[in-house]
Fold each of these.
Amino acid sequence: MEHAAALPAEHLDTSTGLTSFKLGFWIFLGSETLFFGSLISTYMVYKGQSITGPYPHEILNIPLTSISTFVLLMSSLAMVLALAGVQQGNRFQGLLFLFLTAALGSTFLGFQAFEFTEFYHKGLSLQTNLFGSTFFVLTGFHGAHVTMGVIWLLSLWVQGLRGNLPRERAQTVEIAGLYWHFVDIVWIIIFTLVYLLQ
Amino acid sequence: MSANPANVPPTAAHDAAHEHPGAGTYVAIGLILTIITAVEVAVFYIPALHGVMVPILLILSATKFVLVVMFYMHLKFDSRLFTSVFVGPLLLAVTAVISLVILFRVLPLYELR
């Protein structure tokens, strides 16, 4: 089956013909772009303005972050496969990939915790310099979003284990997926602007 | 597909009925995203490309962004209304970032001259 079935829940008797839940969530994601836009703006404006070290080129670990970026990208792949499984009524695929998505998200958080700890031991904290302040606030808020996503995914997984995630509730998984992909695209931007363009 | 409700505009109902791609497409997109990420890291480590690193990385990053939004978030297949409510604020955010960088990082360089 090359195409997953469209969600029957989308054909509702609303003024737009779309579910208000999904439309509202897209509006929420739009507001989130402004939130992260403000954090990215702050990082970019203060980039290279630190008068004391450690400086980005001394401390950022590109190989490690490249691996964690790959892990987050693969979690997005797992997420769409989980959604496809639930939409097709394939309980095993849905549950397997939901758990895999949460596991990959947790792995990404593990990489971030390791990175933050390593930076702290090398003398970079939230108060050290402008780089430390803007870096930890930006990546910390992203990490908080990933943490919320992992909790959300695990709660869906538990619901699925209990048999409460049938095909009719696929939109619940789709909304969680939208959130998960959003944190992924935010990281795509952060990885380029913070890590690669030093 | 279910019947179009009487008060639903035809275009909205038509857009909502679009189907999502299958697992093969998702895996192919995942592969492309992995390759682009590998190229990004390679560009970072190749000294000869440092002169053009900024545009290359920005284009590659934007490509990844668009692929995820279009295929994994299904904006390519879903209602255009979803695209509007997301892309509108996104453009505003991008404009804000660019404006602030110009105001605080680029214009002061000209004032120094």
Amino acid sequence: MAFKLRIVPDVRDLIQEQRDRKILLPYVTVKSAGHQSDRLELNLVLQAMAISRKRPTRSQFYIAAIGAEITLTAIGAEIIDYTKSSSIPVEYTTSRQTEKGRVGKIDPELKSELGKAKAEVKVGTFEMSSKETRGSSVKYSSEEDVVVATAFADTIRWNIDIPRGEKAVRDFLLGNRLLHATFKWKGTARKGKIQSRSDILFFDSNKRVLSPLASLMMRFVLWRQKINLGDAAEYQGFLSEAA
Amino acid sequence: MIENDENPFIKPLQIDEETMETLQRVAAIDQDEIEVALEAMGGNEEIFREFGKQTGITDLLEFQQLSRLIRIRDQHKALPDAFQPSISSGMKSFLSGLGIGIGLGILFAPMSGEETRNNLTQRASDLADAARDLIGEGRERVRSTMSAIRGQAERSSQKEGTGAD
């Protein structure tokens, strides 16, 4: 008999308004990966919210995440493959007309340790070059989005972070992150869970991060106004059923 | 710019004037206006605990700190005026400790992307200034050395000329 994994609850069941109030939406798709094996594909949608007054004005605050943690457990199964640690290179170039013209380069590095996983991140290299024609440009290259994967027994944990400190392009996590994991089941019982959690913080109108205490107080104020922010489906379970 | 309000991943959230003002007063906790922020956020410890339970954040350090602050605030409010000074001094020392913590947090908070970009441009410009000064200084040094050598050469050739006569 063929089996199919069912995800409960499924983020797709939320209405649009509910989805728009969530910082992290984990869309899970299950595909068969051959005999006794399943591949789980996670499309993490990281969103932000721009708070403004009801009349048309500039956004006063932003709500977003600077980090997220996804833990996937397939009870008793063997992990065959999964998304490994990675980072996204960032290239940023700006130019302007000046009366100066020389060359320079700064290349700092950051080494961090996250649980058992270690990550080495180049904080950024920036080069300044110019010609006698009085034009100058600044090129900033870095790795701003870091995924650290840790696998242990039947569990995989992914930590998605924006490195602390200077960031030239992004202030918070936005967009899609695609993760996957393939399991080989050992018995007939096929079940597990996915836990998704993000670090929700508030940012001012210049996208400068506010303190965690201020963020918590502001979240409380909105909650009292029935605006409940958070991550959609913090816990999702999956179990097999006859196809 | 990647982050702007037209970005499909940034969802608009419109709130009324009163809630916006409350948020602004609460955000003032980052400028050490702790009492103003606490007063503005309203609620009580019970409601706050319910909020923590519903959002699953009761294990956060900030949640526990804030619960304690709300308790002190509400105890302070409940006391008759005659008893307030003694509580007030205890609360003030707690708040000043918290204020130092928040102040340090803000001091070491990272800059926003826009500020970082401006900062990078400024640093590059400073670097260029320094390089220009160095090159200018070097050029000046070469020029003065050359003129010293030229002067010396002219003097010796004049001496030789005089000797030949």
Amino acid sequence: MSATHGLSSINCTSCGAGLSVLGGGRVRSHVCGYCGSVLDTQDNYKVLDSIGKRNHPSSPVQIGMTLTLDGVLFTVIGTLGVVEQYGSSTWRWVEHQIYSPTHGYLWLNFEDGNLTFTRKIRDYNMGHWLSPSTVERAETPPVRAYQGERYKYYETSMTQIDFMEGEFNWVPKLGERKEVVSLLGPHAMLSLVRSATEREVELTRLLPRAETAADLGIEERALGHAEPHPLTPFKQISEEPAIRKALLVTMVVALLLGLVFWMSGGQRVLSTPDIPLASLPESYEFEIDNTAQLVRVQFDTAFQNQWAELAAEIVGPDGQPVIAGARTISYYSGRSGGESWSEGSRRGSFLFRPTEPGTYRVRVEQLQGSSTDIGQFRVNVGQGKPVAFWLFWLAILSGLGFAGLIARRAAHASRRFAGSDWSDD
Amino acid sequence: MPRGALPDPIGATIDMSPIRLIIFAGCALALMGAAYLSYYGVGRESRDLASSTQSIRTGSSGSTGGGGFAAFGRIK
């Protein structure tokens, strides 16, 4: 007797319990869930070994359940309890062998409330194998490529079987060990698995909890609380690519337009020749016809290691003062410790909104300064002066929004590797 | 052509959902608003002693014609 299509159940040749036959013709062993006998399906279900009665590992997935992966219907045929120990820490998870008559044998894994799906891949370049000793010697986390995706080293583990039940396409043994080097890619985990007899490469994907649970016929809450998984996909906010693009374009346009406005002096209506400080106080007249925009009155000096406080009173066509104030202009520079330095500015300005067109007059006086007779300056007045303030603020806000979206994605990428055992030491 | 898609001049389609339209329109409005405020310098006048504000140094109001900067000899 051997496992063949059409045979739906057999009786355990050790204890006589009824066992479902679900796994197709390439099943090599069947572990009785009642007495723990390991039966050889290729040799009349002869008893090969026994694991005895053991506690079933915790998993909501049961043998006989079905689920559809990538459009292919699979049946759960076996259950392995797997354990990893490192120091005083122990990690446990469950691997269910699943079977499809057309796609063969794969794995459905359950760990920390998450369901993952593992398949062996045959087209990985084995010349790029990664062993734990290579990882140990590496200066930076090793990286491998598969099908155009980049996989970065995540962890090395030594796994061990501590429970088995159901059908398998090989003969598992309690305590069977595997050395697994895992690398994390954008959508999957690449595992380089070395057992006592062979080397294999596996690809693991995280399955959506709710949909997979519904497909298996169980409630999502039966999976328990889901711990963060490195394969958890990044959750974009609604229309994130469009928002990112819009924020970036807004930032760039606002910045460029702001720079244009910032550099624009408006329409020049007064530009005096160099005025010696010693000639102050002095008055200058200029004509304004644009009352919609601001007028800028600017002092441009050629100060070098000098300061002065220049006061200005601007009087409108009606003889009323429009603005009166003072600007301290200070500019110092030199060399210190082999490096050039400078501080202050050679300019000072006033912005005002003219109330009516006509002739305006600015009277300039030096209030105080490092010198009253050395130094000179010019008065430049421009009307229709735009400012950059609001555009720069918009650029900052949209830039912060854009940076926030990028940072959110970067934080997720960083969190994915939070459980990695890589250490730079 | 997907719902909400607009034909473009080269025959392909631009997927412009209502939400995306709102996002792009919002950014365009913000840009236009900031450009308007900046062009006309709204709220950016110098905070110096203006004609309608009390002169700190003179203690008089410029609107009466008697105010102004102390240096100009208008102290009452």
Amino acid sequence: MAEQQTPGISAEDLEKLVGHLKDAEVDADDARLNSVESLELWVRTHPALQQAVFVENIAQLGPALLQAIRAMLGL
Amino acid sequence: MSGAAGEALAPLVRAIEEEFVKAPPTIAVIGLSGVGKSSTINVMFGTDKRVSATTRGTSRFNSKTLELASNRVDGSAIRAALRVIDAPGLGEDITLDQNYLARYRHHLPKADIALWVVAARNRALALDQRYLEQLADRMPRLVIGINQVDLADPVDWNEAINMPSSTQADHISGIVEDRREKLARYARNEAPAVVAYSARRYYNLQALFLACIKSAPPERRWMFELLKSFSTFDWLERAKGLSEAQKRELAKRYIASDAKIELEKLARVMKS
């Protein structure tokens, strides 16, 4: 890790921080995957979308698809 | 977005915009005055920063649809909306409470998510229990959030890593079990999630958000993910013991990248 230029943290604290960081990202990933499944469910039951080209690719595209949609919506 | 990927996704994006208008994602946030209900919604969905001016401001019971500002490349805006059901003053005046509770009973069945917020330091839960008893049948999927854990005794939050001290962490575990025992029993859903967090410090927000997402109807969860406005880095950057370089390095190593999506790769997958 880069040279510490601030008061710094102990090795024990760093371990706790990294542990929580990993846990948080596992939760974030879980939420994204839940949302991809949710989007697929919604699309498959939507009268105007269920025949669309990308329906079969939603699971494969995964969270990247949500990112793309967010970018297109300007959110 | 331009090119093949944008064209292929255009019908989906149009349908999503229509859905936001027709049936906006709805979250009910319930709890006594001062527990941080607004702070919680603000950090999860950016509603203090990106709500259009005409829809800001809550002072009484609200079932309000907040239009969230969007900044599309072509300059057009979409009507991305979040509906928040909130009674800011619950518990302040007993003469108003029955009115608020009646309104909650009316609006709660429309909510995708029902988040009950309590403050970590508050051990007096009789009012929460009483209100929960009156509202539980309207909330099939309850999530209980314990906010302000940074103020849990012995109030020695580890600012260097933006986490509870070891003693505080032990105490917080006890608080979670106590609130689970005292509040979760009123919920209709079996074993509702109970999550300890601090909205002010962005601590454990991912766990809270995940619990909320999982409680929403399966076909509606994606709407909340699109409106999510925080990342793990918001928590990490508040760790005062780390230099900026260290934070960036940790983020690079452990936090999912928001780097530019490979649009052409997306387009290829969609065509195959």
